[in-house]
Structure formats: C-alpha cells, structure tokens
Amino acid sequence: MRIMLDAGHGYTTPGKRTPDGMSEYEFNRAVAQYTKGLLEDYQHVLVYFCHEDERDVPLQERTDKANRLKVDGYVSIHANAYGTGWNNAGGIETYIYKTRPKEAAELAHEIQHRMTSRTGLRDRGVKTADFHVLRETSMTAVLVECGFMTNQKEAGLLRADAFRRMCAEAIATAISYTYKLKKSAPSPADQQLFKVQAGAFKDKSKAEEVAARLKKAGYEAMVLQIKH
C-alpha cells in the first residue's frame, strides 16, 4: 500500500495565512508528518510526501510524482479560509472530484466522520470540486480542510500541537479503516522486559521465602545467584 501525503502550499505562498500571521503550510506539514508516522505503524505501507519545505512545489509536479510512483491513495491536507479578516465561518469539509468516484467518496466520508468526531468542529460535509490534485491524479484522491484560519477560535486550534496530532490520528485511522490495514508486530525493542529486584540476601532460604510470598500474592518471582 502506497500513500501520498500532500501538505498544501509552502512557507512562502502568498496569502495562505491567519490574519495574525501563521502560515497555513506550518499546520499542513505538521499534520502530514504526524500522519506519516502513524501510517508507518501498519504492515506493508509506504508513505511519500509531494511537498517540500524549501519551496511551494507546483501542483503539476505534485500530481506527476504521485502518478509516477503509482500510489494507491492521495490525501491533500489544508486549512480553510473565508475572506482575509476574522469571521465566524468554521468547520471541516472534505473534497472529492466532481464525478464522485466511489473509492474517493468512501475515503472522504471516513475522513470527514473521524475528523468531526474527534475535533468537535462543525461538519460541513463531503463536497465535490474540480481541484487539480483531485482531477489530475490517477488514484483515489481526497482533499481535507481541517478548520478555518479566519476563525479566531479555530486558528488557535490550528496552532496547537495537540490539535495537529488529533487531525493526523483521524486521517490515519480513516485510511487504515478504508484500506483494511493491519498493525505491524511490535519490534524487539518494544518487547524488552524491565526487572525489579525485591531483595538481596546472604541466606538462600530467606530469598526463597520472599519469592514464595511474592508468588502467593500473584507475582512472578525467581531466585538468582549473583556471583561477585
């Protein structure tokens, strides 16, 4: 399974900021990074980025890369805006191409449901659009708007690391559910044991007595002889 994550725009893209100056790309890239980390916990999943920190990668270059790599799914991550000043427009919406491809609709509805459930923001629904990243990709493609930069309350959320992680968890969970992904087995490092010593005795019988009491209480216990 190959997934392309697209953090919309770039640090220097004109506009694309909250009225008090936060770059939309700052939010988009953080969510993409967290989503990548979560998806890589699943079996047989490769995650790619089509954005770069150094420049605002042109849309054609982004979709060309996705098509060349033959990814299975393309998720473009954005924050919304209405006008240029603070206002009350708010909520989350997810877009698919205007022909409403079935696979994209399924993924979009899953992302929309999990995003609104986790964040508690207004559900603006799944919508259609003729966006380049939806039209020029040859795979399932969706675009999610994770809140409004021009809504002062939501802009505060977009700045918060906890909210960014929440959005990433919603997107990753939706992808894993839609594509029926399975978690990878824990690595040996995740399975390492840490031992607690209950005592040290010169008399072996005392050690065995303590071990017996621990076992009776429901703990695993053993007596080890330590050579100095």
What would you note in describing this structure?
- The chain is α/β, with parallel strands linked by helices and 228 residues long.
- Helix content is 39%, strand content 18%.
- Helix 1 (24-39) links the parallel strand 1 (2-7) and strand 2 (46-49).
Extract low-pLDDT stretches.
Answer: none
Mean pLDDT figure: 91
What CATH architecture label of the largest domain applies? 3-Layer(aba) Sandwich
Principal-axis shape equals elongated
Q: Determine the fraction of residues in helical runs and give it as a percent range.
A: 25-40%
Please report the distance between the alpha carbons of the first and last residues. 54 Å
Domains counted in the coordinates: how many? 2
Please count the beta strands (DSSP E, at least 2 residues each): 6
CATH class of the largest domain: Alpha Beta
Question: Which properties best describe this structure?
Answer:
228 residues; alpha/beta; Aminopeptidase; six-stranded mixed β-sheet; 7 helices; 6 strands; elongated
